[in-house]
Design brief:
This is Catalase-related peroxidase. This protein is α+β, with helices and mostly antiparallel strands. It has eight helices and ten strands. Bound molecules: protoporphyrin IX containing FE.
Length: 341
């Protein structure tokens, strides 16, 4: 009988294990219902007419902002996060428009966005990325992937194939609340008079260990106004408007935390909670400066919505993990392009 040395045995076992892992990964990739971050970001690039090196693959057009958050301590009732204790923390953020083209005209997109990093004590910062529409068009990463495929510009122009988009909408009735909201709320006339929503649900945990599902929004002190006809002809009215406003003084929003009632849907970003849910005004966000996104402090930040301080946790909304992975992939690509520059 052939003698087998322990080392050979060990090597064979390792090869067998490695082969099983590779085969398992291939099967998972083939049959997993979720598209990978690479696939999603590839589609975002394709919809934007190709990669725009150095820029974010979504919300590509934007600017950096800085200021501070003045917490009034009201939200300690629901979360023991350091940034929600009474006091002031500095912040770096970014205002942007949805879409993958960093040169798109502002009137082209209706969705404005705000990303923030509220600096807590070391390692306890709160990152958030919010949109001006309180619901997302789809409720799964697969839905987003299909939506991107249906949005692909056709025939060499900048417009998606209307039939593909209609077919997508028929197959995804969950998109209706998003469309209805946009129809009733045309794009705002400025970054500064826009409400920004967390969209996804999260969990807050207080010092007694009690958990509540929440969503939050940044509500501006300046009232909403729809963009004007004159603004439609100005490709950069959003940045210009903010700069003009900041010359007169800081711009302020209130952090409003909305508490879910038992039974409210927390895993579907296309469903809003009914009116009348309890809300806590947690403090004031003060923005007093802006910088170009080309060399400002926000440039290299990944506003990963799962970078949360102790006292705030994700919900089971499947978009959240997909967001984390896609933001990291987009960040990896743009950081590599920056360093190769
Ligand atoms: C599966 C769903 C989603 C995917 C795959 C996705 C993907 C992305 C990607 C790849 C970026 C660029 C990130 C970077 O380079 O740093 C981005 C940016 C952004 N996304 Fe999403 N997103 C999703 C859902 C959402 C939702 C629900 C919201 C609204 C709450 C949102 C708000 C934003 C904002 C505000 C930015 C800009 C962040 C910045 O200024 O750096 N996204 N998204």
């Amino acid at each position: 009988m052939k003698k087998t040395f322990p080392l050979q045995k060990h090597l064979r076992l390792s090869f067998a294990l490695a082969a099983a892992v590779i085969a398992g990964t291939c099967v998972w990739l083939l049959y997993s219902p979720s598209p990978s971050a690479v696939q999603i970001v590839d589609e975002m690039e394709a919809v934007a007419g190709g990669a725009h090196p150095g820029f974010r693959r979504n919300h590509a057009k934007g600017l950096c902002i800085s200021g501070h958050f003045e917490s009034n301590g009201n939200a300690t009732e629901v979360s023991h996060a350091g940034v929600l204790q009474r006091g002031t923390v500095p912040l770096i953020g970014r205002l942007s428009a949805a879409g993958g083209d960093p040169a798109q005209a502002d009137a082209h997109g209706m969705i404005r966005s705000m990303a923030l990093r509220l600096a807590g004590a070391a390692g306890d910062a709160w990152y958030m990325a919010m949109n001006s529409v309180p619901v997302f068009p789809v409720n799964t990463p697969e839905g987003l992937y299909q939506q991107l495929r249906a949005s692909m510009p056709t025939y060499g122009d900048n417009v998606p194939d209307p039939e593909k988009m209609q077919a997508f909408k028929r197959a995804h009735p969950e998109m209706r609340p998003f469309e209805q909201w946009l129809a009733a709320h045309p794009g705002s006339s400025g970054f500064d008079n826009t409400t920004y929503y967390s969209v996804n649900a999260f969990r807050m945990i207080n010092a007694q260990g009690q958990e509540r599902f929440v969503r939050w929004s940044m509500v501006p002190e300046i009232p909403y106004k729809a963009m004007t006809a004159a603004q439609r002809g100005d490709p950069d009215f959003l940045a210009f408007g903010l700069a003009t406003q900041l010359e007169q003084g800081p711009v302020r929003w209130h952090l409003i935390i909305t508490l879910a009632d038992p039974g409210d849907v927390t895993t579907d970003a296309t469903v809003r909670w009914p009116e009348g849910r309890r809300q806590i005004d947690a403090g004031v966000l003060v923005i007093d400066d802006q910088q170009s996104q080309v060399d400002g402090a926000c440039r290299d930040i990944d506003f990963n919505p799962l970078e949360l301080p102790s006292g705030i946790q994700p919900s089971d909304d499947p978009l959240l993990l997909a967001r984390q992975a896609a933001y990291a992939e987009s960040h990896r690509r743009r950081a590599e392009e920056e360093s190769a520059h």
